[in-house]
Amino acid sequence: MIITFRFSVAMKLALCLLSGLLLSCDAQRDGSRRAVDAEVDESPGSVVAVGAASAEESPVDHAESGSVSVSLQSNALGFHRRLADELANVDPSSAGWESETFSEFVSAEMKHVVAEILEHPGPVDAELMAALVSEGFACTSLRAEKLAPLMDEHEIAVNEGAAVTSDRRHLKVEGFVEALSLLAQPFDGATEVHAKFKVMHVEKQDARILTRLLFEMGGKKSSGWVQATSVWHCEWTVETPWRLMSVE
């Protein structure tokens, strides 16, 4: 769409006069500002707060004339940069942030191992999975066995899954791979498949670490977009290297 504006001679003249008036006001404002600055500089021992000073500007100026100029923005910006640099170099494990360190570990493992398997079905790296789960790993079905319609209108259908049984029948690495394969079945033939996890809760106990993860998986099929959402309750070993013990 192209919009064309046509101006008459009178309108052009009015715009020129308005532009000249604005330039005149700006010049008067700049002159008044310079006059105020000159008056302040002449008064000995005065303090001038400069809020728009550049980051490289010295926080103290006009030392020879006896006046002091304080750059508030420069001080704040310098403090922000120092704080950002210090936080960037902090190691959460050495700083005592155990839950933060563990949360980052879980997010990385679920993304690079579990989500990768769900997004790209095929042969699974057994060694990679063995490095994630413990020898006594067990999990329930990760997919709701029964679905009840919750909404179906305006070309949007939402189904709610019934509570999954607490029977941990999928055992060890092979069982986990099987459970993930069943979870991904509704996305067979889909494109733009994506899976992601978000750590919502971490609780360290004497013999285990409990986590609650929000799981989301989506993809595009010929009938439209499909998405699955659920909450995973996971148990991890306390000893490092951390290993996944169970999923419900």
Q: What layout of secondary structure does this protein have?
A:
Elements: H1 9-42, E1 47-50, E2 68-71, H2 72-88, H3 98-119, H4 126-130, E3 133-139, E4 147-153, E5 156-161, E6 170-171, H5 172-184, E7 191-204, E8 209-221, E9 224-236, E10 244-247
Parallel strand pairs: 1-2, 3-10
Antiparallel strand pairs: 3-6, 4-5, 7-8, 8-9, 9-10
Helix pairs in contact: 3-5
Tell me what you see in this structure.
The longest helix is centred in the first third of the chain and has 34 residues, at 9-42. The chain has a six-stranded mixed β-sheet with strand order 6-3-10-9-8-7. The protein is globular. It has helices spanning 9-42, 72-88, 98-119, 126-130, 172-184, and strands at 47-50, 68-71, 133-139, 147-153, 156-161, 170-171, 191-204, 209-221, 224-236, 244-247. The chain starts with 8 loop residues before the first helix and ends with a strand. Helix 3 (98-119) packs across helix 5. It is built from five helices and ten strands, in the order αββαααββββαββββ. Mean pLDDT is 73; it is low at 1-25, 35-72 and 92-96. By secondary structure, it is of the alpha+beta class.
Classify the secondary structure makeup into a structural class. alpha+beta
Strand order of the largest sheet: 6-3-10-9-8-7
Outline, from the CA principal axes? globular
Rg computed from alpha carbons, rounded to a whole number of angstroms: 32 Å
Helix count? 5
Percent helix:
25-40%
Given as residue ranges, the uncertain stretches (5+ residues, pLDDT < 50) are 1-25, 35-72, 92-96
Query: How far from one another are the termini?
Result: 55 Å
In percent terms, what proportion of residues is strand?
25-35%
**How is the biggest beta sheet arranged?**
6 strands, mixed
